[in-house]
Design a protein that fits this description.
Number of domains of chain B: 2
CATH superfamily of the largest domain in chain A: Cytochrome c oxidase-like, subunit I domain
Cofactor (chain A): ferriheme a; Cu cation
Number of helices of chain A: 20
Chains: A mainly alpha, B mainly alpha, C mainly alpha
Structural class of chain B: mainly alpha
Number of strands of chain B: 0
Order of helices and strands of chain A: HHHHHHHHHHHHHHHHHEHHEH
Number of domains of chain A: 2
Largest sheet of chain B: none
Organism (chain A): Paenibacillus phyllosphaerae
Oligomer: heterotrimer
Strand order of the largest sheet of chain A: 1-2
CATH topology of the largest domain in chain A: Cytochrome C Oxidase, Chain A
Family (chain A): Belongs to the heme-copper respiratory oxidase family.
Largest interface: B-C, 57 and 63 residues
Strand content of chain B: under 5%
Membrane topology (chain A): Multi-pass membrane protein
Number of helices of chain B: 3
Helix content of chain A: 55-70%
Keywords (chain A): Cell membrane, Copper, Electron transport, Heme, Hydrogen ion transport, Ion transport, Iron, Membrane, Metal-binding, Respiratory chain, Transmembrane, Transmembrane helix, Transport
Shape of chain B: flat
Helix content of chain B: 55-70%
Largest sheet of chain A: 2 strands, antiparallel
Chain lengths: 657, 111, 221
Amino acid sequence: MLDNIKEFASEFFVTGDPLIYGADVSIGLAMIAIITVLTYFKKWGWLWREWLTTVDHKRVGIMYIIASILMLFRGGVDALLMRTQIALPDIQFLEAEHYNQIFTTHGVIMILFMAMPLMFGLFNIVVPLQIGARDVAYPFLNSLSFWMFFFGAMLFNMSFVIGGSPDAGWLSYAPLSELSHSPGVGQDFYIWGIQISGIGSLATGINFIVTILKMRAPGMKLMQMPMFSWSVLSSCVTIIFAFPILTVTLALLFLDRYLGAHFFTLDGGGNPMMYVNLIWMWGHPEVYIVVLPAFGIFSEVVATFSKKKLFGYKSMVFAMMIISVLSFFTWLHHFFTMGSGADVNAFFAITTMLIAIPTGVKIFNWLFTMFRGRITFTTPMLWTLAFIPCFVIGGMTGVLLSVAPADFQFHNSYFLIAHFHQVLIGGVAFGYFAGLSYWWPKMFGFKLNEKLGKWAFWLWNIGFYVCFMPQYFLGLDGMTRRVSEYSWDMGWGPLNLVSTIGGFLMGIGFLFQVWQIAHSIKFMERDTTGDPWNGRTLEWSIPSPAPLYNFATLPQVKDQDDWWEDKQRKQQGLPSLKTPQPIEPIHMPKNSAIPFIKSLCWFVAGFGFVFDWLFFAIPGMIGVLICMLVRSFSYDTDYYIPVDEVKRTEAALRGTN
Amino acid sequence: MASQQNHADAHGAHDGGHGSLKSYVIGFVLSIVLTIIPLVLVLNDIVEGTAAKVVLLVTAFLQFVVQLVFFMHLKEESKPRYNLMSLLLGVLLVLTIVIGSVWIMTYNKVG
Amino acid sequence: MQERKMRLSPREAAHTEVGHGGHSAGHHGHDEHHEHEHESLKTFGFWLFLMTDCILFASLFACYLVLHGNTNGGPTAEELFEMPGVIAETFILLTSSFTSGLAVLAMHKKNLKGLITWLAVTVLLGASFIYLEVDEFLKMVHEGATISTSAFLSSFFTLVGTHGLHVSLGLCWMIGLIFQLKRHGITPVTMRKVNVISLYWHFLDVVWIFVFTIVYMMGVM
């Protein structure tokens, strides 16, 4: 009996690596610490009522952001472990197998569990406030999306200490990811972790399209909508058409592994190349999904800190919408080398180059917005300024890669690695960091410390170039991605060492960001104006943090940059264009525990499928169905906030003005 | 949330009209006819090869249109026609996925 | 929403139906408007969900079209498919799409009994569709044609099975809705739910047309 348990435990838990034991201990300690603190301060009820069951978009957004920062930490540690292993030739720091796991989890976590939730967090916090709405279209679904993401991410991360991590690369190409080549459970964690969180992403996409199209404040025409909301719309359009492909691809891989189907296997007539084709039909649009909102953030930041209207508003809108459609026509450029005919390669090379056109348009729009503007160099503006050259270089190397014959040389080399990190860090990460510091005061009612923010910015920015510029040359020297060891005579040592130093600089930059947040929570003054940056759009017209119902009376919109125009009129002593509205009872959704419980059931079911434990999987699925039924049969889901309560809240919030 | 109904274009959400018995009956009869045509033509080998494929796909597409117009009342949607726009984009991408995959994979056949 | 508001009389409900046209800002007190707009918001979201489902089926169709020739020495489409059953399934599903439309029609006439009856007919037709499909699948499995026989059969069972799963879920949902209609009657909320499920049902019919055409008809051609 005891032996059986021992044997089970040795397979169930990941053993043998001191790094992982260290992680086990720290995970255990962190959990004990959290439980102790919550119990000691009697905060369990508060946590449940105020956060776990909330349907308030602002709180959901904050939870997304907290989770994504934790994931950024994990993905970042993965990156530094990798950079340490290849800093110099012949280092014996990580075993090859462990290295494979780490580059796999680094990619998955950074894209799906860091960039996506950080993006959704900003969607949630900003979009309803920006368009003058009181919540998203489906607050219940919104909370469900978050918890699906959260439990999916937990399931994926669990593989680190239980069962073993996936190690077939971030897109898990078949046949390597098939049972024949990856018999362990790591690959199943990959499938279920991503599948569960993917359903959440899809729902978020639908939610925000409806919110933006149908819930704008009275008078706000589409062509007066703030640019960030436009970017969210274009990103969500891409989400709803791309994510189902991912769902199918992973489901088919699951059928291969679980039921012995032959979609992508080497035997039985399966075709592994179909997997590559399918996954990139999602994978390429995914890149645009994460970068489009960053473009929106830059547009807001540039306009605010140049004190000018965004240049070329219409062209920006068209550029974004064109990118979101065109992104579905370029997927093959990820596998030019697979051996499709010249006609196929030529078609996709051209579509890829076409995408550079709308992107170029945007760059000029931002530059012209700054032209003759009164620029203030705040942290969000610094991130934006650094983004422009970085993204231009990344875009140019992208155009180089899009030349199909040349791609045969660059394919899977460090040139490619440098290219996509340049657009993903320089574009996406810089953009979200800009957004985070720009909207931070709206979320919490105080600014982030500028001095520490600038330290973090410079460390990231310098670290980035030190890390990735050498990689272009390494790629041209023939270093391929995913190598875990190389010998002295390859001559890659010096550039790799430089690159690793750059990686650690970015790591220090992250520590500065954490310090910045901690420091600001403790020492920064409260912002009582609600408009600390002298902003242009509606979110700055209400107190920070926004009350539960956001707007006591719905704003009436007349202009693009309505809040700014309003302030200008006031300054010039002109009467406001708005007639004051009487406060009326506000219709709001009730909190619900179902999203949390349902996602937990998904987690249990996913865990059961990973280990093929039907005694977990079946109850989990039944739980999911029961949650759906309960929700369908409950008709009492909303309530009204009475007028005097709204008046009291407003008086308390605005009284300090 | 729900108190947001007063917008410039919130009314587009209304799912159009709801048809009449007549339109449902016409739709039903058309869809039956459009099913019988390919059955008769193809199973009795009246048309073969490419011609048969064309007949099959054209009748299937017409059925799709019949369902949209007579059953889903897409025509009666009020402006702005977001339902129609999303459908058109959806159809474009459906075709891209199917035709694109088949085109790419003709070069990568195994087995 | 308070219970009081949920039990609109048919006349009041009809009022909400026509009353969405020309109200200006500041009508927060008008719950019927609220409810109507709220529900139509949900219908639009469901339409978008159907678009995502189109993409899901498109991916499965793409797989089928790419892999259907890879029979791995196992049975081919021509050997396997028995058209009489499939033709019966097709006409049953077409008819159920029509009857779900009649249910919506009855609903707009505030005819609760007719609505429930037509929904029940639709459920029965849907259930017989599923019965025939399961029967067809079982026969195939009996002949040794399973999901793991060949890439062709993997993609066949997955595509057709996914459609069948959608229909089955729709059946459970419709049954649940019948109970809700009995309890709450025709209200803006239940009206939206009936509208949504009938959209879903027509959508599944459209998908089946393409399954029928591309998988079965082209398979035996």
